[in-house]
Amino acid sequence: MTERGQFMLGCVGDNTVDQYFGAADRRLIGGNAVNVAVQLRLLGADVQYAGAVGTDNNGRWIRNALSRYGLGLSGLITVEGSTSISRIRVEVDGERCIEDEDFAVCAEYLPDQAAIETLAGCAVVHLGMNPNANEIRLILKAEGVTVTQDCAVSAGFENLDVAFCSAGEDPEDAAALAEAAISEGAKLALVTRGSQGSLAFDGQDWLHQEAVPTTVVDTTGAGDSYIAGFIDSMARNHHIQECMRAGALTAAKTCAHWGGFPQAPLPDIPAENATGIQKNESLQ
What we know:
The protein is an alpha/beta fold. The protein contains 7 helices and 13 strands.
């Protein structure tokens, strides 16, 4: 597992259309699992993605985009209903705030047996937002798969090899979060701290990685890119410190462009429902 092309990686969970509003106005494809999957692909890995999209324009755009990036999509299903949407307010000073999220068909997604068999062939499988994360981890660990998870969007630490967590700049809060992840079953805890870098804890030793300086355009998806850089390096058996450095480098690159990976904005769809989340109309 030390050379590219000798292993496959997997991502399970959320996809969404990020709708920026306020000081910025654009629509981009995102979601933790999707951002990690595409970033892993950009790093040269073979990647399988498993998740659910709706029978709407957003679902078709997501499927087409992931296909263009060369992801394996046998585990991506289309379900009657709406694709997930996240509304992100951009303040004048550039601060981002997720105002509301509708996970829609993602909220009930559970990989079927065929998808599990594909994921079982992966060296590492990463879980994004998924309400069935506990069950998926148990199944994958029984198959001998290394499992990672974004624990900011999915709950549980049991049967987890790497818990990716996120904290503010307070070092004591970050340390307490890492210790909690280990005490509840994770083998390794990674806590990202924005401009303050990241720390790792395995129950005995602590490691720290500084953030890589960059020109910040958009911080959305930076944490997801850190995860991708770390996983790519870990899958090639690199030391944890080197994996953290790879994560920091990947995150810095993502901060320099809009969205969780390089992409053109999606077309505007003017119709809105009562909550302000845009509806989808049939393709012309």
